Amino acid sequence: MTWLHFTPARAEVVREAMALLVPGPTDLPGEREPGAREADAVRYADRLLGAFRVDPPLIYAVGSGSAHVPLSPEQRHGWLLRVRQLQAAYRDGTALLDRLADGDFAAADVEVRHRALRDPRAHAFRGLLFDHAIEGTYGDPVYRGRPASGRSTGATPLTVEHPTGRTAHSERTTGTGTGTGRAPAPYGDETAALLRDFTAAARQVVLGGDDG
């Protein structure tokens, strides 16, 4: 499996952390709906962090994924800054999780991984991972690309359909907001607000709110 941004080791840290934050049947006995692992949410994060490694950048992918809305110079600059910030956050965050899990987060026992994620020093990165896990799990599968195995997870139960048939994520068009979804304003304020409300509610339940 190839990655746009992650090394294989970092990808495994992100995969295992996301799976604890948004668990599916593999990670939580009795869970019936797919979670971050089943949805391949780690690939969503990889495509976001590696967005500018391809042309056109993987920003504003819509519909089948073959079309992109061109970025204005201002939007491109804003997104470049945001992506660089996220790259730094993931570099430092995955290294921190490894340290907190006695050197190897992905290989550690699940109790050790839970302990590392709950550590106050991992608070900011845990929140970022959770937001991306939610977006990657419940958003349009096009944002995850097509896994090398040819496996397709399909849309998950909370995918939000736009009236035109496109599935919406939300993000400020400047790329400087706190959101990280990669579909644009053209989907309308109503859908964007719904997605923001859902993420906020999920954070409240799992993390105890934005500051939890």
| Outline | globular
Query: Roughly what is the average pLDDT, rounded to an integer?
Result: 75
Query: Termini separation (Å)?
Result: 35 Å
* Assembly status: single chain
What structural class do helix, strand and pairing data support? mainly alpha
Largest sheet: 2 strands, antiparallel
Range of strand content: under 5%
Q: What is the number of helical segments per DSSP (H or I, 4+ residues)?
A: 6
Strand order of the largest sheet: 1-2
Quickly count the domains. 1
Order of helices and strands: HHEEHHHH
Unreliable residue stretches: 61-66, 147-192
The total count of strands amounts to 2
Give the % helix.
40-55%
